[in-house]
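ok so I'm stuck.
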Amino acid sequence: MILSAEPHDTGKRLDQLIHERLPQYSRSRIQEWIRSGQVRINGAAQRASYLIRRDDAIEVEPSEPPPLHATAEDLPLTVLYEDEDVVAIDKPAGMVVHAGAGVHAGTVVNALLHRFGKLSSEGGPLRPGIVHRLDRFTSGVLLAAKNDFAHQALAKQFSGREVEKVYLALVHGAVKPESGRIERPIARDPVRRIRMTARLDRGRTARTEYRVLRRFAHFTLLDVRIGTGRTHQIRVHLSSAGHPVVGDTLYGAPAKIEGRPPLGRYFLHAQRIRFRQPSTGEAITVEAPLPLELEGWMAGVDGQR
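replied:
not stuck anymore, here's the structure
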């Protein structure tokens, strides 16, 4: 549907105006449409905070609310480890872990439900089995709990910082020194709400440790370990240190790199996770191989030194 801005609408927020015209929909629902590109101003997507101008043409594509619970879908799934309590998969880049704003199908949860039938209920009806997450364009090891006992045990390990998580990250620039620690609080960016930031004096405490694995002329390959699991933590911390992850344009990486094809994802991979098996207490280590697209892209970077 097309909504036309009237003179008295000038200066109103986009989400406010749509809510006034379509009061049968909640403001949060309207904001979800805006985030997912279902609302356009004069043919272009804008933020919810966009201020209406006189004669703006507002195109809206209303959609039904998301399902109240996750459903099974027959999707490819690579299982790295499985026992009676836990399953570890190799999440591909581009796959969302669970339903959220604008995404209600094709998730890891949908695939897990098809493969295993039932998972723990601790995460709620939309996130069964999920005890931790990876960003959409991050690949690698992801744990899920098959039952509530396992979920509670794993959640306790994560909150107690007992789970070892190791990532591989290719970043821009020459990282110095050979190893180090970044300890900066992380908060929501007050200007760009889809981002997090480590440039404020407030936020949740976060600790990221890194070690240089390999150097190139314009890039550095890092082994990264996180002591906390904040939203976008590795990406935010490395960017704040002046070394954004390759492909991560949201946090400052260039969209184009001369002589190299577009990566189409972040060069960030959850390589290894180590945890205690909930029932036995046995230490379990699960590793995910570096995806072929990352291996190939790194093989083509200029001049190892």
